[in-house]
Hints:
The protein is α+β, with helices and mostly antiparallel strands. It has 2 domains: 3-138, no CATH class; 142-218, ACT domain (Alpha-Beta Plaits), CATH 3.30.70. The chain has 7 helices and 6 strands, in the order αααββααβαββαβ. Strand 1 (88-90) and strand 2 form a beta hairpin.
Amino acid sequence: MNITITFLLRILVAALLGGAIGIERGFRAKEAGFRTHFLVALGAALFMILSAHGFGDVQFSDNIRLDVSRIAAQVVSGIGFIGAGTIIFQRHAVHGLTTAAGLWVTAAIGMTAGAGLYVIAVSATALVLVGLEVLNGLLPSISHRTVTLSMLATESNQLQTLLDKLRKDGLTILSYTANTDAQNRLTVRMELRSRHNLSTDRLLRVLSAIDGVVVGGVE
C-alpha cells in the first residue's frame, strides 16, 4: 500500500475512534463533545506520524541521532492543558474530571492509530465506551446523578425548602447551581447521590412528587 494512503488511513481511523467517544460525551452534554474528541484524536495521530516518519530526509552521522519519540512524548504532556480547561471547581465540588480523562485517553488512542496499531486502538475505544456508558448504568451505587429541576420561585426560601426536602428523602446534595429567569422560574442543576441506590425511574418519581417541581432530566 502506498505510504501516503497508509498515513491517511491512520488519521482517518484515529478521527473516527475519537469521534465515537465524542458522540457519547456530547450525548451526555459534557464540556467536550464530538468535535473536540475528533480533533484531539486526529491531531495526536498526525503528531505520531510526524514523530516517526517526518524526518526521513535528515542526514545521519556519528554525531546526529534521531529520537522518534520526542514529538509523541510532548502530546502526552500537552494534552493536559486541554484537559485542565474542562475541569471546574464550584461549590466545593470538582466537575469535568471524566471529560479530562476522556480527552487524555482519546489522545492516546489517536497516537496508537497513528502508529498503525489498529486493533489496539479499536479495542481501547470499545473499552472507553464500556467504561463511560455501560458500567455507569450497571453500577449506580458508585456513580452520582446530575439532575436538572425547574420550579416557579414564589418564595425567597424556596430553593432551601427544595434542598431540605431532597435531603429528607435520603438524597445527598453534592453540589448545585441555581438561576432565576425573567418569569421568576427557578432552574436548578445539581449533583446528588442516593443512599438507597435508586434507579433512574424511581429517582424521577421521587423528584416529580415534590409540589411545583418539573424534572428537566437525569444523567
